[in-house]
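By way of example, what follows is a protein record of this kind.
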Amino acid sequence: MTTELSTAYLGLKLETPIIVGACPLTLEPEKVRQMVDAGAGAIVLPSILQEQLDFQRLKDQDPDGAVQRSGYQPQQDEFNGGPVAYLQTLAKLKDCCSAPVIANLSGTSRGSWLEFANEVEANGADAIELNWRSGVTGPTESSDHIESRLLDLVKELRQRVSIPVAVKLTQHFTNIAAVASKLEKLGVDGLILFAHRPHWDVCVDRMQWNIRWELTPQQSLGAILEGIVHARTGAGKVSIAASGGIRTGEGAVKAMVAGADAVMIASEIYRAGPDAIRNILQGIRAFLDASRFQSLAEFLADRPVPDLCSDRLMHMEYVDPLIRTNDYPDPTPAPTHGRCDSFGHRIP
């Protein structure tokens, strides 16, 4: 007997709790087919960017100034295909994909670019994921004002469409539980915790900073779990998807114990291909088979909801781990020995 792994996310029924997170892989129908065959319960298209949509609107009115006013760069279309191709891809995936297809809009503020939400809904998107970017903020902009910009944007988006809306948050909020509660009151259907961020570094020779995208670090799950626990106390009924650091079935189970209803993976698919989905599902199924639960839904319904406002848990979060032991594990991977080529490959 095969253990039932279906779950509810954004009011949608997913055959499994594994969602392929927003990335360019989901633009290719054949790769999407392979990932769904491997057990993906839903897929998320890569972000369509506010800059692209602003440029599309401005280019006929102000051809000379459209690029500067919008912040558009041609490489953005190479990343996601551009607005026209994005809608065509969405419609094509809806014709050939049995799993829900979720569109992803990425922006910083309200504006006419949100009209695109109506277009993705008309082209069959099962839900919309808002990947909110706070942008670079100055010293005079308060945290309350930053939070208000997010809430205003979400309110407009929620009013525009009838399909479910999820918001992808960063870990930079002071009180993630309060933000989650406010978003739930605005009618948001789900939260994705958390948005992947680019890696910052500094080039010492040029005395400049540089920013690049990397796969999610292998030891990043702990911070995700902490954020989910905090957010769940503020948003009791919205769906939560864990995003970042899910590599195994055990990691997925931990995220769901913390309060997630589903888990998003992307980096692990880049590392291992569609087999990453199979391996995680196999781990979840093995956990359930060894437990008293007959299905994933039964397991999710039985999860405890911690009261993080209690003095005991506030004490436990910091003080108890600090004094419990003097043995501090080192999560740094053990160094490899031997010679390597310029790509890091071992030389026999």
Q: What stands out?
A: Residues 143-160 form the longest helix (18 residues). The CA atoms of residues 23 and 46 lie 5 Å apart.
